[in-house]
Amino acid sequence: MTNENKLREKIVEFGRSIFERGLTAGSSGNISVRLDDGWLLTPTNACLGNLDPARLAKLDWQGRSISGDAPSKEAFLHRSMYEERRGAGAIVHLHSTHSAAVSCMEGLDHADCLPPLTAYYAMRIGTLPLLPYFAPGDAALAEAVGRSAARHHAVLLANHGPVVSGTSLAAAADAIEELEATAKLWLIVRREEVRLLDAAALADIARRFPG
Ligand SMILES: [Zn+2]
After folding, report:
1. Any idea what the Cα angle at residue 68 is, between residues 135 and 36, rounded to 5°?
2. CB distance 79 to 94 below 8 Å
3. pLDDT digits (tens, 9 = 90+) for 15-68
4. Residue 154: which H helix or E strand, with range?
5. CA of 67 to the centre of ligand 1 (A)
6. Which residues, other chains included, contact 75 with Cβ-Cβ below 8 Å and sequence gap of 6+?
7. How far is the CA of 134 from the centre of ligand 1 (A)?
8. Cβ 57 vs Cβ 41: under 8 Å
9. Which of 17, 26, 150, 172 would bridge 166 by S-S if both were Cys, CB 3.0 to 4.6 A apart?
10. How far is the CA of 161 from the centre of ligand 1 (A)?
11. How far apart are the C-alpha atoms of 19 and 11, rounded to whole Å?
12. What would the pLDDT profile of 109-149 be if each residue is shown by its tens digit?
């Protein structure tokens, strides 16, 4: 199997896995991977639980279709993140319930909207900027994602959901799932007296797990 075909199978497998676990509903969310000669993206109006590897949209870096079905209408989110993050091998965008719930909350710190509850969140996400709300398809959203993506591999879109990149699909998948789990945890404990990881613990994690 060629490398591209392996990546196509991985997208289908991950899509089915997150659909079956309730992390994506209907035809929301999209998954992309970088190839040597362009990139693959899940098609528009496709249910991630039931993707066909041969029909994934293949695009060039101008966003033009090379083959497959029409790409997700959120292709521009992925493209602006890849442009700023040359090391990104894959990007996952979800409307997963708990992250989307946090994205609707008032009073968040826009520079870093989830607190450091666990070491794995600190390692896999770290800092999570909250970008303002934009209507679907608004070009200003792509610009905002591009501006943040230069410094952050994960962002949360207000009243919408997270966009997370990784060096591989497995890395992006792990990170967005950690983000969703932490959003759920935060919704459970935020009215309790919470002990966060302090600056010394975060510095220790950064030292043990650089990059
Ligand atoms: Zn979306």
Report:
1. 90
2. no
3. 999 999 999 988 899 999 999 999 999 999 999 999 999 999 999 999 999 999
4. strand 154-157
5. 23
6. 30, 41, 57, 59, 63
7. 11
8. yes
9. 172
10. 6
11. 12
12. 999 999 999 999 999 999 999 999 999 878 899 999 999 99
Indicate the pairing of strand 130-131 with strand 154-157. parallel
Token pair belonging to 72 = 């997700």
Find the angle CA(83)-CA(128)-CA(181) to the nearest 5 degrees. Answer: 115
- The torsion of the CA quartet 103, 107, 110, 113, rounded to 10 degrees, works out to -60
Model pTM score: 0.95
Q: Which of 13, 74, 133, 180 is catalytic?
A: 74
Two tokens, residue 175? 């990170």
Residue 82 catalytic?
no
Listed in sequence order, the residues at least 6 apart from 81 whose beta carbon sits closer than 8 Å to its beta carbon are 88, 91, 145, 146, 149, 163, 165
DSSP H/E element including 7: helix 3-20
* Residue among 82, 120, 180, 192 flagged as catalytic: 120
Residue 120 known to be catalytic: yes
DSSP helix/strand/coil, 203: helix
Confirm if 136 and 54 have CB atoms less than 8 A apart. no
Distance of CA 96 from the midpoint of ligand 1 (Å):
10
Q: How far is the CA of 73 from the centre of ligand 1 (A)?
A: 9
The Å distance, Cα 171 to ligand 1 centre, comes to 20
The residue type at 55: R
CA distances from 65 to 19, 75, 129 (A): 26, 11, 31
